[in-house]
Amino acid sequence: MFKRRKSLWLLLVPYVVFFAVLPWANHVKPRIAGFPFLTFWMFVGVVLTPVAIWLASLGDPARRRHWKGE
Predict the structure, then answer these.
(1) pLDDT digit string, tens, across residues 2-32
(2) Crossing angle of the two packed helices 61-68 and 37-59, in degrees rounded to 10
(3) What is the C-alpha to C-alpha distance for residues 25 and 17, in angstroms, rounded to an integer?
């Protein structure tokens, strides 16, 4: 399934941002924009998740066929 639909690999971005990298991002310092690093990291993950899903749907050939009416 992933061989024909390579854009679905983008759906791993939220997993990596929230779970795989979390042990390395679990720091209070440095502070970014007044927020602890972990809070800033979670905010970045919340912003990147819908972007990754949107990009995956744009590149999915099944979605293109659906919208073309095939």
Answers:
(1) 566 777 788 888 888 888 788 887 877 888 8
(2) 50
(3) 9
- Count how many Cα atoms sit within 13 Å of the Cα of residue 56 in the half-sphere of its side chain: 16
| All structural domains of the chain with their residue ranges | 6-62
SS (H, E, C) 4-43: CCHHHHHHHHHHHHHHHCHHHHCCCCCEECCEEHHHHHHH
Instruction: State the pTM of this model.
Output: 0.68
In tens, the pLDDT along 24-54 reads 878 778 888 898 888 888 898 899 899 988 8
